[in-house]
Every structure is written in C-alpha cells, then in structure tokens.
Design brief:
- By secondary structure, this protein is of the alpha+beta class.
- It is about 65% helix and about 15% strand.
- A four-stranded antiparallel beta sheet has the order 2-5-7-8, with no helix packed on it. It has a two-stranded parallel sheet with strand order 1-6.
- Helix 2 packs across helix 5, helix 5 packs antiparallel against helix 11 and helix 9 runs antiparallel to helix 10.
Length: about 475
C-alpha cells in the first residue's frame, strides 16, 4: 500500500516537472525583452498609436481644406436648356415706312397685337467661373481654429502614447510578478517533494510513522494546484503584454528582469518623485487647448456680424439653335466681373444664439477643468500613498521572510533529531511561502503605482528610476 502511494507520488511529480522542463526549453528559445525594448516595440507596432497618428494626418488635411477657401475657386460648367414655349415680345407704335398710310397703320397695329416669339429652341452655355473672398472675418477665425485642432490631435496622440507606455509597464510588471510567484511555488513544491522523499526513506527504515508519510504526501498534493495556477498566470500575463505590444500572440517572449531587480531601489525612487505640478498632464493640456479653441469660436461667432466682400469673374460661350447640328453652331463669348458686398442685418437670432451657446460651452469647460484638476490631485495623493505603503509592506515582508526561512531550517533540524513534528515543518514552509509572495506583491504594487503616477503626471519614461 505504501509502495503504491509512493509510486503515485513519483508519477505526480513527473507530471508536474514535465511542463516545467518544457517551459524551460521554450524560454530558452524565447525573445528576451527588457522594459525599454518592450515599450519601443509597442510604440512602433501598437494599433492604438497608429490610429492616433492617422488622426493627426486627418486634421492636417482638414486644415489645408479650410485654408484652400482663401484661394480663388475656379470651376468649369456647361448648361443646356430646351425651350418648351418661347417668350413673346410685343411692340407698340408705327412700323417704319408706314407713317403716311391709313391702311399701313392698321396692318402695323395688327402685327403689334400678335407679338413676336423670341429665342430659339436649344440654348447652350459653357465656360469658366472664378470667385475669391477679399474680406471674410469669420473664415479667418475658422482657419485659426483648424490650426488649434491639429495641435489638439498631436496632444491626443501624445496621450495615447503615454497611456500605452503605462499599460505596457504594468503588463510587464505583471509578467514579472507571475514569474516570481511561479518560482516561489516551484521552490515550495520542490521542498515538499524533497521532504516527502526523505520521510519515505525514514518510513522504510521504520523511523517515522505512516501518519507522517501521509501528511507529507498531502502537503505535496496541496501545492500542486497553486503551482498550476501560477504557471497559467505566467502564460496569460505574457499574452496580455504581447497584445499591448501589437506583436504575434503566438510569439515566445520572456522578461529579462524580475521584481528582485527593483526591490533595493524603492525608497530611492520614492524620494525622487515630484507631484507639485500638472503642467505635463495630457488631460489638463487638452482642456487648455479646448478653452483656446472656444475663445476663438466665440470670436468667429462675433465675426458673423461683420460685412464680407468677394470678387467674381466668369467667361462663357453661348449658342442658340433650332436643331442639333453642332458643327453649324455659332458660339458667342460672354465675360463679366463683379464685386459682391454682404452686410448682415437680420437672421432670426441665429448669430446671437450661436454666440450665447459658445459662452455656455466656455463656462462648462471651466467647471470641467476645475473638477478634473481636483480629481487628478486626489489620484496623485492615492498613488504616492500606495507607494509609501508598498515600501513599508516590502520591508516587513523581507524581515518576515528572513525569520520564516530561519524557522523553516530550525523546524527541519528539529524533525530530523526527533524533537519536532511534521506539522512544524509544514507551518514554517507555509509562512515562508506567504512571506515571499507578500514581498513580491509589495514590489509589484509599488511599480504599478509608480507607472500610474507617471502616466498621470504626463511622463513617458521607460524605466522606474527616470
């Protein structure tokens, strides 16, 4: 019975160690990425950044389209009309050469009452027309607004990059946490397995009871689910990182760093943070740009009350005929130039209400800016407190881990000498595992809060100590 249980334990260990070996072999061929390299790839491959850059290009095209309104607009057109019923023209007075004849006067009066049909059935017209705004105050204001829209698109692109950097940093830290947690559980599993092997040998020699052997076997089984979950967490964390980077989800990647690389620098990084200004925060900068645009929109609404002046020119050819023999048509040129002055007088209150609407938007934007600034200050306070708490938690976990490791060694020696119990070994091993996980979690919480803090401050650093 005991031998059968031992064989089952060995088989279980083999099942656990096989994916570990496969994972180690996979990691040896994986692309090892540092945090700056991961961010560099994300900025060049991420669809989010590409969409933001395309938005800048789109606004540039819109600005050029508005700027084109200042240039002459030249068009070519052709018209055809078919006369259904010709216009009749009547003439009064005597016909030439008929003044001395009574009979002639009667004939002339008859013809005048009948009228003369004017025009021909087919009328053709084709030619060029051009117009140019000379004085257009509202158009000039709109051009200034389109330039601000381009700047706003640039800032929005910067915001998307800052958010992407923050997300990549957090995803990278999550991979490190998952890997370190997996290593902790792997170490715990190996210790429990070694302990089981040692107790099995002592049991075969009659030095320990069957109860101790069963407890050692149960300890191995209890670690296995956590080990499998940790291994799956590593895979999922890497998938999230690859998705943010915009690379193939089936590509093999690995992180070149671990949370231990940052553990000794937490207090140094905390002392270097500066949360006194939000001048680089992208949201606040966008609100400032929107305020400028609304001010210019108000000026454009006021400019709708100003007169406008434009120049128009056209050169056309006209032809009229009773048939469709184009080769016999006679094309007569016609040209004109004119100046048009428009003075706004009454529009039913449209301009006035548009101006009032802009003033309401400006008031709402000011309230939004005030509320956003307050929320950002609260967020900064929250992130700095999280970092401070994480430092304290890490220091406490480090001290606890040292004591737990020492207690675990003492418990093993006590058990080997017969002075201790297996329960002491399991409890000390559990305490050591919890201390190790808490230490890694504290470092991760610090890095996560630092990434969120840098994102709120509008920074785009790629390393924690910048």
């Amino acid at each position: 019975m005991i031998r059968k249980r031992f064989l089952v334990g060995v088989a279980t260990a083999a099942m656990v160690l096989m994916p570990m070996c496969a994972k180690a072999q996979s990691d040896s061929t994986a692309t090892v990425l540092s945090l700056p390299k991961a961010i560099e790839i994300a900025l060049s491959e991420s669809p989010t950044v590409k969409v933001a850059n395309n938005e800048i290009t789109k606004q540039e095209y819109g600005r050029k389209g508005t700027l084109a309104s200042l240039f002459p607009q030249i068009d070519f057109g052709a018209d055809y009309s078919r006369t259904i019923k010709k216009q009749v023209m009547y003439m009064s007075g005597s016909m030439p050469g008929m003044s001395g004849s009574t009979e002639g006067e009667g004939e002339s009066s008859s013809r005048a009452n009948t009228g003369i049909a004017v025009g021909r059935n087919n009328t053709w017209s084709l030619g060029f027309s051009a117009s140019l705004p000379v004085i257009a105050p509202q158009l000039w204001k709109q051009l200034s607004i389109t330039a601000d829209q381009v700047e706003l698109a640039v800032e929005q692109s910067r915001e998307s990059k800052i958010k992407l950097i923050g997300n990549v940093r957090r995803a990278y830290y999550t991979v490190m946490l998952a890997k370190d947690s997996y290593n902790v559980y792997k170490e715990t599993y190996q210790n429990t397995l070694d302990n089981y092997t040692d107790i099995k040998q002592k049991f075969d020699q009659g030095l320990v009871s069957e109860y101790d052997l069963i407890r050692a076997d149960v300890a191995v089984k209890n670690v296995e689910p956590s080990l499998f979950d940790a291994q799956n967490a590593v895979v999922l964390a890497k998938w999230q990182l690859k998705a943010l980077m915009g690379i193939d989800l089936n590509a093999e990647i690995d992180c070149s760093e671990s949370l231990d690389n940052y553990a000794d620098r937490l207090e140094e990084v905390y002392m270097q943070i500066d949360t006194t200004a939000l001048t680089s925060n992208s949201t606040m900068r966008q609100l400032a740009m929107q305020a400028t645009m609304l001010r210019k929109t108000k000026e454009a609404a006021q400019a709708a009350y100003y007169p406008t002046l434009g120049v128009a020119f056209s050169y056309k050819w006209n032809a009229m005929s009773e048939d469709f023999k184009f080769k016999d048509y006679r094309w007569d040129p016609y040209a004109m130039i004119g100046v048009s002055l428009t003075i706004p007088i009454f529009s039913g209150g449209k301009r006035y209400n548009s101006l009032r609407q802009t003033k309401v938007d400006m008031a709402n934007l000011e309230l939004t800016r005030f509320d956003t600034e307050r929320n950002l200050l609260v967020a900064l306070k929250s992130y700095t407190d999280q970092m401070k708490t994480s430092i304290r938690s890490h220091n406490a976990a480090e001290q606890g881990m040292m004591q737990a490791r020492k207690g675990y060694d003492i418990a093993k020696k006590r058990y080997d000498t017969g002075a201790g119990t297996l329960l002491e070994i399991n409890d000390s091993r559990l305490s050591l595992t919890q201390a190790q996980l808490q230490s890694h979690q504290a470092v991760y919480n610090f890095l996560n809060a630092k990434a969120s803090l840098d994102e709120t401050l509008g920074k785009d650093e790629t390393t924690i100590n910048e």
